[in-house]
Amino acid sequence: MSTGSTGIDPLVGLRVPQDPACDVFLTGTVFLDIIFTGLDSAPVRGTESWARGMGSSPGGVANMATALARLGLRTSMAAAFGDDHYGEYCRDALEQGEGVDLSMSYTVPGWHSPVTVSMAYEGERTMVSHGHEAPAPATDAVPGRTFPHCPPRARAAVASLVPGRSEPWVATAARNGALIFADVGWDETGRWDLDALPDLAHCAAFLPNAEEAMRYTRTDCPRAAAHALAERVPLAVVTLGAEGAYAVDGTTGTTAEVPAIEVEALDPTGAGDVFVAGFVTGTLADWPLADRLAFAGLTAALSVQEFGGSLSAPGWSEIAAWWQQVRTHADQDPAALERYAFLEELLPTASRSWPLRRAVPTIGFRQ
């Protein structure tokens, strides 16, 4: 498996021969994302809008897989792929381009790939998606494995919790020693009941946003919500949007809060996935809680300055370019820079200038 575009392995000093080959396992739906940016406003009914930018990339669970792989974690993903050109492109981009292990994935003949069109404007986004649930794999699709109930042995796994639903693979992964990191979406039932998230019992870390955390805990303060959640999970991390993030370690009582980095957002698609990937990386590398929060926030901030979801996930070379650039500003607050001083020993020599733009407005060129 790949260790990122620069070959940096954030766990290099921690690996021992008996470790699992996989650092992080995840499963979900892969979409082809088509992202329009540079819109001055939302499209108006009955008119045609022209976007100044566009990107195409694998999306859905591929956002998280790409973000993890670019940070040097050995990433394995179980997903269905259509046998259309979109599916072929997404699979190739992940497997060949990012080094994601897809041995747990399978191709569905005659099934078309789900598609999402995302329009970014005024720091927000509007999405339209189309797709159908993938059929279960044939018995010989993934030899020797039951998809995805028997995940590979891994250091960690990332799950997306859904009210009223339990995913058997989560319990299996936890029993096999994986740390389970979980986020959650909007509760369409309106119940906001933590007991309706049965897989929360297997989680080492829970990472909702402020609104979700407050609704689930019946509190009116995201920090109070984090403390309440830390009574249910070992580690609660609440993202605060432009204010940064707040975390409570329920096992030690340690708390940490890190402000967000102010950036000009081009496209917020996938930023939440990048935040989780950064936090997972720091946790597996055994960094202090505040450093993990700072790193997660930094990677998310870098991602919103790029087009697309998986396209925007930063690697170590992008982080190094930012670190080199930000220190050259004479008006930088020394205390703010000190917050990221822990990066100094990790980062490669910056080989790329800042800012960076990597968007590809098509799904590929003929060779």
Quick overview:
The protein is built from 9 helices and 14 strands. α6 runs antiparallel to α7 (289-303). With 367 residues, it is of the alpha/beta class.
Spell out the key features of this protein.
367 residues, alpha/beta, 4-stranded mixed sheet
Structure description:
With about 375 residues, the protein is an alpha/beta fold. The chain contains nine helices and 14 strands. The chain has helices at about 60-70, 85-95, 170-175, 210-215, 220-230, 270-285, 290-305, 315-325, 335-340; strands at about 20-25, 30-35, 55-60, 75-80, 80, 105-110, 115-120, 125-130, 155-160, 180-185, 205, 235-240, 245-250, 255-260. The strands form three sheets. An eight-stranded mixed beta sheet has the order 4-1-9-10-11-12-13-14, with helices on both faces. α4 crosses α5 and α6 runs antiparallel to α7. The protein is globular and about 50 Å long. It starts with about 20 loop residues before the first strand and ends in a 29-residue tail after the last helix. The mean pLDDT is about 90.
Number of β-strand runs: 14
Sheet having the most strands: 8 strands, mixed
Overall 3D form: globular
Distance between the termini: 26 Å
Radius of gyration: 20 Å
Structural class per helix/strand content?
Answer: alpha/beta
Calculate the mean pLDDT score and round it.
Answer: 88
What strand line-up does the widest sheet have?
4-1-9-10-11-12-13-14
Q: SSE string, helix = H, strand = E?
A: EEEHEEHEEEEHEEHHEEEHHHH
Draw up the topology in text.
Blueprint: E1 22-27, E2 30-37, E3 53-60, H1 61-70, E4 75-78, E5 80-82, H2 85-97, E6 106-108, E7 115-121, E8 124-130, E9 154-161, H3 168-175, E10 179-184, E11 205-206, H4 210-217, H5 222-229, E12 235-239, E13 245-249, E14 255-258, H6 271-284, H7 289-303, H8 316-326, H9 334-338
Parallel strand pairs: 1-4, 1-9, 2-7, 5-6, 9-10, 10-11, 11-12
Antiparallel strand pairs: 2-3, 7-8, 12-13, 13-14
Helix pairs in contact: 1-6, 4-5, 6-7
